[in-house]
Amino acid sequence: MEIRTITTPFTNEVLNSLKIGDIVNVSGTIFAGRDAVLPKIVGMMEEGKLEENGINLQGGVIFHTAVSPAGVGPTSSNKLEIEGTMPQLTAGGIRMHLGKGKLKKETIEMFNKYNAVYAVIAPVTALLNSRVLSKKCLAHPELGMEAFYELQVDKFPCIIAAAHGESLF
Fold it and tell me: Which fold has domain 3-164?
């Protein structure tokens, strides 16, 4: 199977070409956040405060992870505080959620509505850390490694797990 490299921000053309089971490398700017910060990011969206923090979600990716000195690795995307924010974040422009674990059928159907996808990544912190070119905290630094970060990545490996109303799970 061919491994494709796709670069953020994602276009509808790229998203339309993705099928479940595809293996892709993601390059470009992605966001990193997990259960502590994602509800706060949704709150910032609702208050119209993303732009003032340099956050533009259009065509973007949110990697469900903390950013620690040890590196980055996926957390379970089906945690209430993470999966519960996916509808708002996706409506706000996110086109790929990147993490691990099975999501609810309703979440998979919601992705289809917005031409968004969910990709899973194996918990391989050392490999992923070597693919992070830079990191910058954009919001809620008081949360430390669970704050909202912007990462520059090169060839982040992942597998499309949900697209066009279908799921691997």
Answer: fumarase (3.20.130)
